[in-house]
Structure formats: C-alpha cells, structure tokens
C-alpha cells in the first residue's frame, strides 16, 4: 500500500518511465526463465526479417511464371533456384510466407474473437445459451475439421482466394478457443473480486469487461497462438489437396506444385526445401510461443525442478 | 444413469450424421454450383461445338438425378440415400458407384490409422509417464526435445522429408504406393509383408509427428497428480515404488489421456489424409485428393461423409468405454 501512495505523490512521467524500465527488465528476467517464449519469438522474428529483407532486395515480379528458365538449381543470382513454371523461388517465398501467415493470423483473430464472445455468453448467462453453445462446440470438435473445410471449399467456384481462405478456415477456428476460454471464465466467475463487483451493483457487461477480461488476457493470447497455428495448418492442408487458388503463391500452393510435379523423386531439392524449412520454423516458433505462453498463463505448470 | 448417458451419446452421433448429410445437401445448392451442369459444360467445351442438345441433356440428367423435384422432396430422398450410403455414381469413373470405390480404399486407411494412432498413443503415454520419474533413464530426456519439436510439424511434411531421406537417398523403403506393381492386394503372407513394407514410411511419419503430443499430455497429468493424497497414502502404506507408479499414478492419469484421444481423432485423420496424398497410399485420403483434382463432386461428398461417420463411431466407442474404466463416473444428472 505504501508504494502505491508514494507513486501517486511522484510526478507522473517519472513513475511511468521507471515502471516501464522495471517492466522491461522484469520481462527480460522472466524470459530467461522461460526459454520457450524466447525461442518462439526469435523464430518468428527471423521469419519476419526474411520477409522484410526479401521485400527490399528481391525483384518480386520474378515470382511470375516464365520469368526465368525452368528448374534452375540455386546459383548466386538465383539463391533458391526456379520451379518448373519458371518462377524465381526466392521471390515466391518472400511473397508467399506473409500471405500464409496472414491467412493464419486473420483466421486466428476471427476465431478467437468469436470464441471469446461465445465463451463469455456461455459462462456468464448460462441456461439455454450455454447448453446450445456447449453442444455445438462438443459436436464440432469431434468432427474432423478438414472434412468440413473441404465441403465448404469445394462449393466455392474456382480455387479459394486468400480472403475466401481466411473465411473458410475461420469457420471452425472459434470452436477450440470457445471451449478453453469458457472453462477459464467459469473459474474466474467464482473469484472473490467478481463477487465484490457483483455485490457492489456493477452491471454484468461491466463486470465482464472491467473485471474478467483483464484476467482473461493471458489465456486469450495463448489460445490465439494455438488458433493461428491450427489455421495455418488447415489452409496448407486445403491447398495441398488442390483447393487453393492456382495462381496464389502461398507456401501451401508451393507444396501443392511440389507434390503435383513429384519434385522430391526428381531431385529438385531446392524447390521443396525452402517451403518445408519455412513451415518448420513457423510451426516450431508457434509451438514454442504456445508452450511459453501457457507457462505464463498457468504458473502451476512451471517446472518443479 | 448409465442408460441416459448411452442415450445422450447415441443421440449426439445421430445428430452428427444428420448435420453432415444436411450440410452436404444444402451447401452445393447455396453455392449455386451444379455438378451436372459444370461437368456437361466442361465436356462440351472439350468436345468443341457440340452445344446442340445441351438443354435436353440437362433436363434428362435433372430427371435422372431427381433434380426436377421440389427441394424438400429432394432433401428427404437425399437423407434416405445417405442413410443407405448411396452417394450416386462417381463422375470420373462413371459406371462405378462412389461407395464401391470408398469400400475399396477404406481398409487401407483404417489399418494404417488404427495401428499408428494406437502405437503413438501407447508410446507417448509410456514415455510421458516415465519422464516424471526421478530415476528415469537419462536418454529419455534427450529424446524429449526432438520428439516435441517433431510434434509441432504437420504429419505430411515429415512424410516428405522421410521420402527424401529414407526412400530416395538411402533407398531403404519404397517411395510411394501401398504395394508393389503386379501384386494383387490380398491376405497372402507375402502380399501382407509387401503391403506392410510399403506402409512403414507413412506410419512412421504419423507416429513420429504425434508421439510428442501424447508425451506432453501424459507428463502434464502425471505432474499434476504428484502430491495427491492417494499417492502419499499409497507410499505411506509402504507399497513398492513400481506399484505406486503403475497402479496408482498411471491408472489415474490414463483417463484424461483417453479423453484427449477421443478429442484428437478428428485432427489425426485430417493430418493422415495428407500423409496418404504425399505417399500416394491407396486409402481414402488419396481418393479424396484424386476426386478433388477430377472435380468428382459426388465422390468428394461420399468420402467426406464416410470419414466423418468413421470418426464419429470411433469417438462413440471411446466415450462408451470411458465410464467402464472410471468407476467414479456414474453420469448421473447434476
């Protein structure tokens, strides 16, 4: 209590500066205890750096078919070589990586937003709304998601463009966040501070926004990472199955062409290695972030070593 | 009540069947895509100037597939057909029925998926349980990091890498397919050996990529049971460490693992579909890939429906086993 009083006496900017400094060093200290978070962020930043540097240095028009000779192995001029349609694969990766990420992030955000809203309604209002939402989530989670997405995708004329892909993938991305966050809201709802807010006459929406949401944030962020990872996986799955747009340059479409032209058994290694490495970096990074954030959200998981 | 639980669970299964078939019925009509018109149009385009008689042909086809009847009648017919697993003819292999082709490829997927899922679950669960023991062999801790990393990678990517490393470079395993050319799949021991040999790489990619998930899950549950009263009591009774570990700790931790298995089945099959594509394994996944490439609309619908039903059934079985394993659950109404 004394510290709070002192802070109020001090001029605002000084406190804020020192608090920011404290937060930064605190964050750093925490990161050193949570190496997964650090590795995850590092891998993610490495991908972003690749895309940024690529956008500045690579001629992106060369990602068009027939802009080079086909199937050239890597050379100083073409570090990633070209594919069978004469695309410069470095340019393809520079354009495709952020597109794939974009699909995942947008679909993930849509999914977690819908999931959180439904979870709050379900946990706070109960009754028929809760039964309905829980029922849909329970059933939805046992159905193989990719099958539903295939059904959706094959009814879209032509291949899925990127915005369409986002919507299709987001159609199921809310199920898991809804379940996880609902469980969390249920435990938060019973805490003393929520009781106090309720007894002091705070309206329910205000309790949700001002009391529950801030405490829910770590879980929301953690399930966002999970949702992004699932959405990227789903979009790549649809694209590998041939449901993406054929002139799209995403990582998934690159893999579609790799499989289509049997690049692996034709020893065109430069064609399939970069997309695979990018996906591995992406998924390992997201996985590490998820593990790290999980530990941040559930201190109980911290290693008992 | 046991009966009530059973009834509720069966109801959920029926609901899944109804939803899956209804979505299959509604979506194509919403999307305004008519498979027959599209197919006829494509054929007409290929054949050049054979536009004459298209209208009559479409009318004839509409009649034959019942598309000229009112929607509600079409819907009821569709539900009835789906119930009898009648998915019409395959468009790319015309005189053959969709369901006959599915029956041919389903056993491949069931065996591959069943064996790999069980193996991965068992190995992962054992590994996860052992990891929480202080006297576990040190090598386990070294395996953990690579296994966890592998679990972050999609099944089929690992498959691509395995094809390249173990198939293409080292030539230890065949690159693709479910059996050697010239072999007729059957139950002859030699043929089975050949099929098993072909399934090693696909199986390996599913097992290696999913084992970490189970390890992590089991380790988490085991850690959370450490320090529970019943474990302390078992130890205080003077039971041997191995007894406490196997009879008390593992047995209780297995239940959440089983729930996780029921929940993960959908994801596993989604991943396995792509593994089949990568290996051109003759299961339903490859069938799906080929029918998407050939725009074989009825075939896609049939395969999707069968996979949803199969997973629904597997989940149902797991859910019905669950109360038998956990005597605490009576599934009484709250």
Give structural notes:
The complex is a heterodimer of chains A (305) and B (334). In chain A, 74% of the residues lie in helices and 0% in strands. Chain A is mainly alpha-helical. In chain A, helix 6 packs antiparallel against helix 7 (162-173). The longest helix of chain A has 37 residues, at 89-125. The two termini of chain A are 33 Å apart. Mean pLDDT of chain A is 86; it is low at 1-14. By secondary structure, chain B is mainly α. Chain B is built from twelve helices and no strands. Classes of the chains: A mainly alpha (305), B mainly alpha (334).
List the helices and strands and how they pair.
The complex is a heterodimer of chains A (305) and B (334).
Chain A: H1 2-9, H2 12-33, H3 35-57, H4 89-125, H5 127-142, H6 145-154, H7 162-173, H8 175-189, H9 192-199, H10 204-240, H11 251-260, H12 269-297
Helix pairs in contact in A: 3-4, 3-12, 4-5, 4-7, 4-8, 4-10, 5-8, 6-7, 7-10, 8-10, 9-10, 10-11, 10-12, 11-12
Chain B: H1 2-31, H2 35-47, H3 54-64, H4 71-83, H5 98-131, H6 138-151, H7 155-169, H8 189-225, H9 229-236, H10 241-279, H11 284-293, H12 297-325
Helix pairs in contact in B: 1-4, 1-12, 2-3, 5-8, 5-10, 6-8, 7-8, 7-10, 8-10, 9-10, 10-11, 10-12, 11-12
